[in-house]
Amino acid sequence: MSRLSEIPIRVDFVPASLRQTDGISPAGVAILSEIESLLEQYQAFGRNGSIDLRWLSLLPGDLDRLHDVLGTGEVSAQVNALGMSTARETAIQCVWWVEHCGPEGESLGQWIEVTEVPSLLRSDRASIAYGLEALRDRIVSFGGESMKELPTVQGEQA
Predict the structure, then answer these.
(1) What integer is the mean pLDDT of 106-125?
(2) Which is more confident, 33 or 144?
(3) Residue 145 and which of 12, 104, 124, 131 are 20 to 30 A apart at CA?
């Protein structure tokens, strides 16, 4: 390419609903646009997505403004494992605000996840065997019979 006119130019369209208005910074607009794209991908292909808010150049008040725009949903959950972690549904279906804190309550990171159930709340498939063993132990400790010892039904193990 020897001429400026040969350089390809790409123009991205930003919907009017996401243009900077009423105190939303350009970074906030970009995050909202990304959430919109993630929701489109989730709807079309079932692909979960997330945005790690730790590494973004945000202005003071940007996170508060994002909270305002996304609103508050009906569900929130806390997990206490080496510090408190919280997943809060926003007013936008399938959009979750997730925060992980350290043992002293310091924020270790915040993410916006686009999914039906945030990863914080999903059990690891490898833990199923431990759960099954714990259930059987509890059944026996409460006076029941171990599921392993029950008779088979129609040729299958119970």
Answers:
(1) 89
(2) 33
(3) 124
* Whether residue 51 is found in the same domain as residue 15: yes
The string of DSSP letters for 87-128 reads EEE-SSTTEEEEEEE-TTS-EEEEEEEESSS-GGGPPPGGGH
Are 96 and 34 members of one domain? yes
- On whether both 72 and 126 belong to a single domain, the answer is no
Domain that holds residue 126: 121-151
Q: Is 30 buried (19+), middle (13-18) or exposed (0-12) by CB count in 10 A?
A: middle
Are the C-beta atoms of 133 and 126 separated by less than 8 Å? Answer: no
Quote the mean pLDDT of the chain. 83
Same domain, 66 and 136: no
For residue 25, the model assigns a pLDDT of 85
Kindly tell me the sign of the dihedral angle through the C-alpha atoms of 118, 89, 35, 45: positive
